[in-house]
Amino acid sequence: MSVRKREWTTPKGVQKYAWVVDYTDAAGKRRLKTFQKKKAADSFAATASVEIREGVHVAESASVSVEEAGKLWIASAKAIGLERATIEDYERHLRLHINPFIGAAKLPTLTIAKVRKFEDDLRDGGRSPAMIKKVLVSLGTLVADAAEQGLVARNVVRERKKRRGSSDSRQEKRQKGKLKIGVDIPTREDIKALLSVLKGRWRPMILMAIFCGLRASELRGLRWSDVDLDKREIHVRQRADRFNDIGRPKSETSERTVPAPPMVINALKEWKLTCPKRNTGKKDETGEPIMVLDLVFPNGTGRVEQLNNILRRGLHPSWVTAGIAVDSGEIDKKGKPILEPKYTGMHALRHFFASWCINRKEDGGLGLTPKMVQERMGHSTIAMTMDTYGHLFPKDDDADELAAAEKAFLA
């Protein structure tokens, strides 16, 4: 591998020069790459030498653009059977955020500096911090897929994250506010008020969300075959995405068994008697359609219920009826103020379940350890549990503990 200076004169008599890296790749093919500055040429030569020696070097001319790599990435995602919702998110990130800025760039030309500029461009373009984070994760996954296909040697997106990971993590934790009781997490009084008004088909579902902590997607995909009424256990083995497609749980740890209190079990027993059945599309010997009891919380035809229906017809009206509501600032046709629920999503109930597990001593029970809370919630790591709910765990009196330890030591 050599770095040499190339000089020439333009037709107008202007003297020009550039630096050329002349090398042979791992396949024995001669490659030339030109740079305006010697420093950049030397840097490329040093990196390329290592990549060639390790057998991972990919010449720019032998690679593809970010946009082309994105198409290959989406094809791979579809081939391995990723959920439709996930693929749609990936396609949206490519179409709206990645391709407009760096879609034309060849993969080997991406550097940590260019990725940083891409992040700045997204920020200047009005993207939120949360969206920027999601787009960078997608870009890193795209480059990783391209690396597996031999289209690029390095994943500079993830390299940058490793270099800045510790400081970014600290900054993110500083910026991210802790979940607050009465703001993000319903209070015990709020939940008691909600319980007092629950009725009909929504009662068993909301009870399970409160006292078992299942995600909305897990509730919508729950089958009667996964409910053990005798052992009072709920087995989470599948979920329904926003397209109502049934698939595996969110992660391996999301597949779990959760104990259910008597109130939930009794509500399920009553609900099972009137739960809508699903038409299998087949007929019995008498010509009648064969109906099966399948999903625990289906719609009227026994199929997956829409999340919007659960909120609009079930949870939100229940909050308002319970008096856990705020003035929307609008009035109805009769001139009365329109009230909105104080807590707008199903996830608030999941937050309450976590806080209830942590502080059940207040109800005469035993507070669960962080590991047990992680397992009940189906979190992928204990770090996720502690980052989200760590501030809710009871704190021992450090002063009294130190005093007792000192006394024992000096005795």
Key phrases:
411 residues; alpha+beta; DNA polymerase, domain 1; hpI Integrase, Chain A; 3 domains; three-stranded antiparallel beta sheet; 15 helices
Model description:
The model has no long low-confidence stretch (mean pLDDT 88). The chain is elongated and about 90 Å long. The chain has 3 domains: 2-57, no CATH class; 62-175, Orthogonal Bundle (DNA polymerase, domain 1), CATH 1.10.150.130; 188-391, hpI Integrase, Chain A (Orthogonal Bundle). It has helices at residues 38-54, 66-79, 84-102, 112-124, 129-148, 156-175, 188-195, 202-212, 216-221, 262-272, 307-321, 347-358, 370-377, 382-389, 398-410, and strands spanning 2-9, 15-24, 30-35, 227-228, 233-236, 239-240, 246-247, 256-259, 278-283, 289-292, 325-331, 337-341. The chain is an alpha+beta fold.
In brief, what are we looking at here?
By secondary structure, the chain is of the alpha+beta class.
Low-confidence stretches: none
How many structural domains?
A: 3
CATH architecture of the largest domain: Orthogonal Bundle
Report the average pLDDT across residues: 88
Shape, per Cα inertia axes: elongated
Could you spell the SSE succession in H and E letters? EEEHHHHHHHHHEEEEEHEEHEEHHHH
**Number of beta strands:** 12
